[in-house]
Amino acid sequence: xxxxxxxxxxxxxxxxxxxxxxxxxxxxxxxxxxxxxxxxxxxxxxxxxxxxxxxxxxxxxxxxxxxxxxxxxxxxxxxxxxxxxxxxxxxxxxxxxxxxxxxxxxxxxxxxxxxxxxxxxxxxxxxx
Length: 128
Prior knowledge:
With 128 residues, this protein is of the alpha+beta class. The chain contains 1 helix and 7 strands, in the order H-E-E-E-E-E-E-E. It has a domain at 44-118: CATH 2.40.50.140. The chain has one helix at residues 3-29; strands at residues 45-54, 58-62, 70-74, 80-83, 86-88, 98-105, 111-118. Residues 24-38 have low confidence and may be disordered.
């Protein structure tokens, strides 16, 4: 066989091997990257107010002074009710209790509660 034929066959094999390797890398990586749309990829926001109602699925608080500004939060398996650093049951929170709610917005634009912290009444300053 001539040298020219051997070089031509070698170049053909090398170039096809390189092209094949590039094609499999592109196919292997396709669809594996995500944009990070998980639950905890969004910042939580804290709302404060007084409890209007609480049940197994939702918590409603008064966030304004007029009593007409209420916010509704979903209660999920991720929701924790805390008082003095200890976990309590949602039924232990009475209407009118001041709370701070850490929540995030779901893709359907509704809020889900992460932590519901029962705030003790703040002591009044003594008049001097």
